[in-house]
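Handout, section B. The chain below has 206 residues.
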Amino acid sequence: MLLNASLLLTFISICLHNQAFYGIFQRSVDVLNQLNGDQNAKNSIRNLIIYHNMVKDWFLETSDVYGVYILAQLVFSMLFLACVVFQLDLEFQHIDFNILTLLMAATISGLNLFLYCYYGKLATESFLSMGDCLYESNWQDLPIQLQQHLRFMINYMQLPIYYRGWNLKIATLNLETFITLIKTVVTNYMMFKTITADSTNSQFCK
């Protein structure tokens, strides 16, 4: 439990770092807008390119580190939540104090899924916002040669990157994935319920 909480908090911290990186990039673009002289603008653009590549490398490296764990966490939390919901359904037939434990377990498991998906989405949006920030700058006022560099840079920044479980598209961390996981939880719950009902009916017939 403590290990899982520590890894979750570390992941949230990584995603917030990505958001902070965007803030630094935004301030650097503001500096570019205020510069006079081709050489100063060239140096500023060079620094922006270096910084953007550094942020992208950070994103991809942390994604590789967390990849397998993210996949395992999504699968485990989804199955665990389905089992807890099924157990809750049984407990509602004869309510006792165990139901509080199950409600807490369901809340923690669902929140765990949501936080991973939400902060993964936040990190991706922060990365993509760098391109939007550059596009909204005064790059059209720069010399033609520098405009060409910036257009290429803006197009390059439009390619999204994600936190994913083992680089699987179905395990991409965003809110769409969270909704899909919740739907899968409901499907598994209904499957458990059907299997239990069929088993009960078979025993009754015997």
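Note. Residues 38-91 form the longest helix (54 residues). Compare this with the example in section A.
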